[in-house]
Structure formats: C-alpha cells, structure tokens
Amino acid sequence: MVKHVGIGATSAAVVIFAVILASNFALFFASQDRATMYSRSDSESSISDTAIALAGVGGANILVKEQTLLESQVWGCSTATTKIADETGSLSDDQIEGNLTVLVSAKLADGGSVVDNMSMVAPFNGLISGDLGISLQVLAKGSDSPEGVYFSKHEDHLVHLPVHLQSAIADCLEAVETTTSRVSESGVTNCTDSAVYPVMKAASATLASTARRDGFQAALDYSVDRGAQCTVDFEVSLAQVGIQGPSGPFIMRMQEAGSATFGSPASEPQE
Amino acid sequence: MRYLDIAIAALVGMSAISGAAVWTPRSGDSASRQLMLQEELRDYVLAYLQQKGVFWMLQSTPESICSELSRASNASVTLSATIGPRSCGSPPSGTVYVAVNLGMIPEEVTVEAWSNTLE
After folding, report:
1. Cβ of residue A42 closer than 8 Å to a chain B Cβ
2. What is the separation of C-alpha B119 from the centre of its chain, rounded to a whole number of angstroms?
3. Most buried by CB count within 10 Å: which residue of A11, A21, A62, A227?
4. ipTM attached to this prediction
C-alpha cells in the first residue's frame, strides 16, 4: 500500500510540475511572439521616423544649396528665370542611414501661397506669394534588414526662400526699357556729359524709387560713346540685400546692360 | 524505494523550477518594454526637431547647440549631440538610447537622447 502511495505521489508531482512547466512555456513563447511583434512594429516606426527626419534634412540641404547658388553670381535680368530654373532642377541631396536611402530633388515651383507640413525646414516650409518657390520630390526606400520591414515612400513638398526673383526681374527689365526710351526721346542734340547727365540722373532716380518701393537696392551706371552717333551704354544693377536664408543673411544680385542712341528716329522730329 | 520516489519527485520539481526560471516570460516582456521606450524616445526627438526645425543648428556654434539641447532636456529625457567631430560631453547614464543622424551641410549632426523613466 505504501509503495502504491509513493508511486502515486511521484506521478502527481510529475503531472503538476509538467503542467506548470507547460504553462510557463506557453507564456514564454507568447511573450517572445509579443516581443517579435513589438520589434517589427518598432522597425516600421523607426524607419518611418528616420525617413521623415532624413527628408527634412535633405530639404534643408537643398535650401542651403539654393542659397549658395543664388548668391554665387550676378544674374542677368532677362535670363535669370531660365538659368535659375535649370540650375535648381539639377540640385539633389542623398541621405543614407543604414539600409534606408532618402533622395530629395528640386525644381522651381509656381507662385501662390501654399501650406506644407515639412516643419523641419521651418520657416521656409510652404510657399509664400512673391517668394522663390521650390518643389521637392522625396523618394525614400529601404529596409531595416534584408529579411525585415521594407519601406518605400514618395512625397512632394513645397518650400521657399524669401527671394523676390520675379519682382526683381520685372523692375530690372522695366528700368532698361524706361532708360532706353528716356535717352532716345530726350531731345538732346549735343553729345556732352553735361547734356547726357540730367537724362541719366532722372532715369536713375526713377529706378531707385521703383527699387526702393519693392525692397531692392539699385544703381544705374553709364558711359557715353561719341562715335558716328552719340550712344549711351548703361547697366542696371539691382540687389536684394539682407535676405534671411537658411545659412545666414545673403544678397541676390541682378544686372542687365542696355544701349540707347541720342537722336534716334523717335526723337528726330524734335531736332 | 521511498527514497527513489522522493529523489525522482525532487528532480522533476527542480527541473521544472529551473525551466520556469530560464524560460521566464519576463525576458520577452522586458525586451518589448525596451523597444517601446526606444520608440517613444525616437518620437520625442523627432517631435523636437519638427517643432524646432534644423536651421538653428546651421547658424549656431557647437557650444550653443549643446546648451540648447540641454535646456530642452527634462527629468526623464536627456538630449545631447555630436556636431562633426565635437561632442556635447560624456553621455549620461540611461537605459534607453536613440540617435538620429542628420547629414547636414556643412557638418553632420547626430542628435542623441537618453531616458531612464520615459513612459
């Protein structure tokens, strides 16, 4: 009888501990599954967060490159739009973090005021009417590991720099046109500095007034060519000074040359 | 025979307790919690960058970046950075750590965050 009780007790102990162990295994594997699930979810969230951060940095770098481009040369008023559009179109920035690659490329955007959620590039996010607008194409691709979560995302964002490009071009070209017609229609007959100076001074005053109204600094330089005809060669210079760019204040300069002849057909009747 | 029974029962019991101790569900739970805290910390850093932007770093010295991040730290989260070859100083003690690399022009900035108690 004692022997049977011993076997029974041992069997009961085996069964009880086996149940405890099995329950523990079930909980252990469930927690492992949960950890794997969290890990996968964390990977997704991590890649997505990293892509947002890299896109923001890529956008910021594009704005820095655009500032460097704009301040790198004196732009011709009649060619600035095309040249700046072409050179902006060639700007891009690669951001690589682990297996994730974010490529940001740029092109000029049309005007208007548009809100954009790329807040990492604030205060340059979105479009502001009159400012230089840039459209960013963001392409993010990658994975956390070769067999892990694969991430692919394409986004478009709009950013701007407080550069009044179109306004500067308009003022500059208008000044060239106005100066040309002022000289041609001035009625001046003798090709002396004292005769030319008042005409150019008046043209310069008009340019300065228009430029000041639009927030630019302007200058009108000229020289008189006393050849077969009395010709004035002039150059309109326009600058937007103190632009608060992403890497500090900068200046955008524009210039356009013109030429006008005294005693042109328009002014002949007065002679 | 009785001693044999006791020995077998004791062996089974000890094996079961050892197994339960080794394959404890707590290990999976603490790994999940660690990942969850890392995710929260990364969200914290990203939210900070989105709220503050990145251009202030371009126009600041490494010292002022470090003091700004120090000001943005609180009791549960410590923010720091490595700007190019310079670091804000020795890292604080923290069980959870994340780093967000910003490949900025002209210098790469890595914003780091530590937390002990982030919930």
Report:
1. yes
2. 12
3. A62
4. 0.72
Nearest to B46 among A41, A53, A65 (CB): A53
- Tell whether B51 lies on the interface with A, counting CB pairs under 8 A: yes
C-beta atoms of B16 and A17 within 8 A? yes
Inside any domain, residue B47: yes
Say which of B13, B102, B104 has its CB closest to residue A13: B13
The answer, for A19 touching chain B at a CB cutoff of 8 Å, is no
- Interface contact A52-B8, CB threshold 8 A: no
CB–CB contact A31 B23 (8 Å): no
Domain that residue B78 falls in? 28-115
pTM of the predicted model as reported, rounded to 2 decimal places? 0.80
Q: Is residue B55 domain-resident?
A: yes
Residue B21 lies in a domain: no
Q: What percent of chain A has pLDDT over 70?
A: 92
Within a 10 A sphere around the Cβ of A262, how many other Cβ atoms? Answer: 23
Instruction: Kindly give the confidence (pLDDT) of every residue in chain B, 119 residues in length, as a single tens digit, with 9 standing for 90 and above.
Output: 667 777 877 787 788 778 777 777 666 667 777 778 888 888 899 999 989 999 998 888 999 999 999 999 988 889 999 998 999 987 777 678 888 888 888 888 999 999 876 44
Residue B2 lies in a domain: no
Residues 6+ positions from A201 with CB-CB distance below 8 Å: none
Provide the CB-side half-sphere exposure for B69 (13 A, CA).
Answer: 28
